[in-house]
Every structure is written in structure tokens, then in C-alpha cells.
Specification:
alpha+beta; 6-stranded antiparallel β-sheet; 12 strands
Length: 189
């Protein structure tokens, strides 16, 4: 009986030590997964614009705390219709890791410095669209964008697990950055 009690005590102690580490790993996985899915959707939309040889829009539509992202290829010229393609690829972002408005995640000074002082425009946190031209570059008002767009990902009520940022360059390329709750940002891909 004593051996059983000692064994159970050791097992409980090991479990108590392992659970926080397991939760931290799980939350990091959720943040990385959401950032990767968003970057993949941006890459897919860019690919569709090049494949179709015409402008295609990337849309973000909120519904409560859930976000739906996808392509809008029914717009005319460089104007988005605001409707996701009926049979197109979509990504739903919900749960622990979600799109955040600017001001929630750490300041982007490290990202701006790494991008040679480029102006960052936050696209997460509100409905919006981005238009890719037939070459895969980002168009704003008919011209190739000079700005860099950023999508912040995290949990507004639980910053302990850090943040991710998906960076969309004017050429249409994407980068993923990470930061702990207090910063600074570091590029991971």
C-alpha cells in the first residue's frame, strides 16, 4: 500500500510539472498554425491572380470573434465585390488565436527597422481587402503599393503566450514574425 501511495504521489508531481509546459506548447502551436494558415491564404490569393492573369482580392470578414478569409475573384478590374467566392478556398480563424487590431500586440519597431523603415499598415482587426494584380503585386488605387501590410495574431485577453505577425510585402511575398508579450519582434520565416 505504501508503494502505491508513493508511486501515485510521484505521478501527481510529474503531472503537475508537465501540464504548464504542455499548455504553453499547445498555445504556441495554435498561434503558429493560425499565422501559417493566414499566410497560406494570402499566397493562394496571389497565385490565383497570377494564374488567372487578372486582379484577385483577398477578403477578411468578421462574424463576432470569428474571421473568415478567402478570395474574391468576381470584382471588376481592381475593385473587390466584397463577396467570397462561392466555391473558393476559405480559412476560418477562431478560438484562442485570432486577428487583433493594432495597439494590442507589441510595437512594430523591430519589424519596421528590418524592413528599412517601410510604413506598416495594420489590416487585422477590421474587415478589409487586399488586391493582387496579374503579376502578384499588391495594388492600391491602381498603383503598386509602397506600403507593407501587417496582420497581428494573438489573444487579446491572454498575452502570456505571445503574438505572431504576418507581413505582406508590396511584391506579394509574406513573412511570419513572433514576439513575446513585451516584444521585441523576431522573424521566423
Amino acid at each position: 500500500m505504501v508503494e502505491l501511495v508513493v508511486s501515485m504521489t510521484v505521478m501527481l508531481i510529474l503531472t503537475a510539472i508537465a501540464i504548464p509546459t504542455l499548455m504553453r506548447s499547445f498555445r504556441a502551436y495554435q498561434l503558429n498554425d493560425t499565422a501559417t494558415r493566414l499566410a497560406d491564404m494570402l499566397k493562394f490569393t496571389r497565385f490565383e491572380a497570377v494564374r488567372r492573369n487578372r486582379p484577385v482580392c483577398f477578403l477578411m470578414q468578421p462574424s463576432g470573434s470569428t474571421w473568415t478569409t478567402g478570395t474574391d475573384s468576381t470584382g471588376i478590374g481592381s475593385t473587390c465585390s466584397g463577396t467570397l467566392d462561392a466555391n473558393g478556398k476559405r480559412q476560418v480563424i477562431d478560438g484562442f488565436a485570432t486577428l487583433l487590431p493594432s495597439g494590442v500586440a507589441p510595437g512594430p519597431a523591430a519589424i519596421t527597422a528590418a524592413l528599412n523603415g517601410a510604413a506598416l499598415i495594420t489590416k487585422s482587426g477590421s474587415a478589409g481587402s487586399i488586391t493582387f494584380d496579374a503579376r502578384g503585386a499588391i495594388r492600391v488605387g491602381g498603383n503598386v503599393s509602397a506600403n507593407v501590410f501587417v496582420f497581428y495574431i494573438g489573444n487579446a485577453t491572454d498575452p502570456e503566450f505571445g503574438y505572431r505577425a504576418v507581413i505582406l510585402l508590396p511584391s506579394g511575398s509574406t513573412q511570419i514574425w513572433t514576439a513575446p508579450a513585451g516584444g521585441p519582434w523576431q522573424q521566423i520565416s
